[in-house]
């Protein structure tokens, strides 16, 4: 490409970008959403959402009917996670409660529990409702912690979960010593998990929603013919439409990072430059998804419906809300085509693990590849309409 061709390309892109920025600046509803949404989601992820179970319904089958079994049940009940237990008389009754969803866990204390405690080899059985894997894992872990620290004579009540997360469980008098250490989030704060990926959710929602109505909106309002009359190529039109939103996305990223740090003490431990570097291909890829949606549909209503259809699975399959490593084969691989999957991997490495450029190189390359593929698809879809 000659110097004149490069200059013409840059001029065309900047002209379309200026036109798009002027329209965006006068859209009061859009500017209000950009300002209010990060604040609302900061409060939601910082205060409201937790992976930590609370008020857990559970049942007890105490076959021992002894003092040791009653004391163990009492110590589990006195933690801040469980409702008062429901006592059952048989396995069938307990399984029925689990099948109905009336309880999350069934604790079974065996007949010879007291003798096993004195021998130093106690065992209890816990049946968990696996419909909610995260809750089941947490509940099982809490019960196991109480059981490990259990003392039949009542001399050492179990420590709170926050204390147990900071010191080895085996430092108590429990019959089963356990050494536990938690890296990157020593106190197991759920807000750290959510806030680390908050920027990814905000940017996904913004990019999909803002760009999906662009082309189809111009066709409906009759301004698309004016855009087609410009001496520009499809790629120039797309890039010109995306550039103003890239700037807005970086502003939203700043709000999310500063809000998480100032409000909740969750600052990126890694490179801030790497964070900005990783964000660019993610924003471009996410905006390209919205443009592709706009090029595929015929009305704004269709664009909104298709955008919402994609946004919700993106949050679930990407691993933002639930660990993608725990997803079954097939489903986990489908999530790998989503830009948010790779961005949240890089975000959590940068925010929680203190990563740098080298640790987020793979997510960056994948996001850049996704952007290139999406841009090619948009050009292919727009080409017949420009002909």
Give the fraction of residues assigned to helices.
Answer: 55-70%
Structural class: mainly alpha
Total number of domains: 2
Strands of the biggest beta sheet: in what spatial order?
A: 2-1-3-4
**Shape by Cα distribution:** elongated
Largest sheet: 4 strands, mixed
Q: How widely separated are the two ends?
A: 23 Å
**Strand and helix order:** HHEHEHEHEHHHHHHHHHHHH
**Low-confidence residue ranges:** 156-182
Rg, Å, rounded: 27 Å
Strand content: under 5%
Give me the number of helical elements.
17
Average pLDDT rating: 79
Number of strands: 4
Written overview of the protein:
This protein has helices at 3-25, 28-48, 67-77, 91-100, 113-119, 133-148, 161-166, 190-196, 198-212, 214-221, 224-228, 234-264, 272-296, 300-317, 331-334, 339-351, 361-386; strands at 58-62, 86-87, 105-109, 125-128. 64% of the residues lie in helices and 4% in strands. It is built from 17 helices and four strands. Mean pLDDT is 79; it is low at 156-182. It is elongated and about 90 Å long. It has a four-stranded mixed beta sheet, with helices on both faces. It folds into two domains: 3-49 and 189-386, no CATH class; 58-171, 3-Layer(aba) Sandwich (abc type-2 transporter like fold), CATH 3.40.1710. It is mainly alpha-helical.
């Amino acid at each position: 490409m000659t110097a004149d061709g490069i200059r013409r390309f840059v001029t065309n892109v900047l002209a379309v970008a200026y036109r798009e920025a002027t329209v965006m600046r006068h859209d009061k509803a859009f500017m209000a959403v950009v300002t209010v949404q990060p604040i609302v989601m900061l409060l939601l992820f910082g205060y409201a959402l937790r992976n930590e179970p609370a008020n857990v319904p559970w049942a007890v089958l105490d076959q021992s009917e002894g003092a040791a079994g009653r004391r163990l049940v009492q110590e589990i009940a006195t933690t801040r996670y469980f409702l008062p237990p429901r006592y059952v008389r048989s396995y069938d009754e307990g399984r029925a409660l689990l099948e109905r969803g009336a309880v999350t866990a069934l604790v079974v204390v065996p007949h010879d529990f007291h003798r096993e405690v004195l021998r130093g080899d106690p065992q209890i059985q816990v049946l968990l409702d696996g419909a909610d894997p995260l809750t089941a894992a947490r509940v099982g872990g809490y019960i196991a912690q109480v059981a490990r620290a259990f003392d039949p004579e009542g001399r050492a009540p179990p420590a709170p979960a926050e204390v147990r997360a900071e010191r080895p469980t085996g430092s108590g008098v429990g019959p089963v010593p356990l050494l536990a250490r938690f890296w990157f989030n020593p106190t197991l704060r759920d807000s750290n998990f959510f806030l680390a990926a908050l920027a990814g959710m905000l940017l996904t929602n913004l990019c999909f929603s803002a760009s999906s109505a662009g082309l189809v909106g111009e066709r409906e309002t009759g301004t698309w013919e004016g855009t087609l009359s410009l001496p520009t190529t499809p790629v120039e039109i797309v890039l010109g439409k995306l550039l103003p939103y890239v700037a807005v996305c970086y502003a939203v990223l700043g709000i999310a990072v500063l809000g998480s740090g100032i409000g909740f003490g969750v600052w990126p431990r890694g490179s801030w430059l790497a964070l900005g570097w990783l964000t660019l291909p993610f924003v471009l890829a996410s905006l390209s998804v919205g443009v592709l949606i706009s090029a595929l549909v015929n009305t704004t209503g269709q664009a909104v419906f298709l955008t919402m259809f994609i946004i919700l699975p993106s949050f679930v399959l990407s691993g933002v809300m639930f660990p993608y490593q725990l997803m079954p084969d097939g489903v986990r691989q489908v999530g790998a085509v989503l830009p948010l999957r790779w961005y949240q991997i890089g975000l959590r490495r940068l925010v929680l693990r203190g990563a740098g450029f080298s640790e987020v190189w793979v997510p960056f390359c994948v996001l850049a590849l996704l952007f290139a593929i999406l841009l090619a698809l948009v050009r292919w879809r727009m080409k017949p309409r420009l002909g």
